[in-house]
Amino acid sequence: MSEEAAPAATSTTNTAVLEKLRTARHYDLQAAGHAELLALDNGLLVKPCTPRERQFYEEATAAGSTSEAGVMGEFRTFMPRYFGSLRLATEEERSAWSATGTALPEQAVSADRQNVTYGYCKPCVMDLKIGKELCSDDASPEKRARMEAKASNSTTSTLGIRICGIVVYDQSSGKYTSYNKTYGYGLTDDTIIEGFKAYFSALSDDNARRAIIMEELQDQLEHFRDVLRGADVRLRSASLLFVYEADPEGATEMRRKAPDGNGDDLDSLDDDDDYDDDDDDDEDDDDDIENPDVDLRIVDFAHSFWQSGIGPDHGCLQGVQNAIAMLKKLRQAKVPSN
């Protein structure tokens, strides 16, 4: 496995990577996104990413422990843990990937703690795109016009948020219900609250637990908002990933043991990574949440970047504040979700 793809005739298959790919599976709980994700059985998720997204992760990782990195360190606690990157270098490795039924990526692949649903019994996921700008500053005029048109025809332009996808467990049928990006584009400023109601519908028969989970998510959103206010970052087409456990008897202990960067997972995935395990000794860098039934992460950094002195992303701040307002409205209503 090498950083640059080499001809199959001269490349050597990384047997550790190959074994992991052979036990991998298509990730079925992906709520949105263009690239298909691959779940490994050790709690990691493999996600095709652009060089810019990899750079975004690496700059955050290289900043040091949370106490040393300041605002960037605080921001990083809301990112999935990054484990490094790899490229499928041989035909054998590409075949093992394809055998999972997941589309073969053209870009480099990042292996990180993106799989925040690991260990959940009945996870419910919502992908909420935040911000008012959906493309990078170096996008072509044609792409910029296209993305601006998409934004203007959705709640992105007015609220700074848009529901990209929802995967929610239906307690009555015992199956999952999915809402795709078309559903999200059909919501207006007045009806987007219905999307939030749909997301929490798995809790409609347990108002007490519903209130606890919504309060925890609101608290995490408010914390993220406060961190974002001090971050020199531009989040272009990034998403907030909401996760909660629909099963009150869910396997919380397994979630507490989710991979955190220790052990040999990293080495077996990539021989070119420079992750520093010393950070794991810093108590401030522990991103475990108090309520293991809930998680909130910021994901998808293909067009995002850090820049010293640039200040906060006000479009994203508006979006986060509106997401907080939605949760407050639902909590105050005190009625079951639809």
TrEMBL record:
The keyword Translocase does not apply. One of its GO terms (molecular function) is inositol-1,4,5-trisphosphate 3-kinase activity. Residues 252-292 are annotated as: Disordered. Belongs to the inositol phosphokinase (IPK) family. Its EC number is 2.7.-.-. SUPFAM superfamilies: SAICAR synthase-like (SSF56104). One of its GO terms (cellular component) is nucleus. The keyword Transit peptide does not apply. Residues 262-292 have a biased composition (Acidic residues). Signal peptide: none annotated. One of its GO terms (biological process) is inositol phosphate biosynthetic process. This is Kinase. InterPro entries: IPK, IPK_sf. Keywords: Kinase, Transferase. It comes from the Eukaryota.
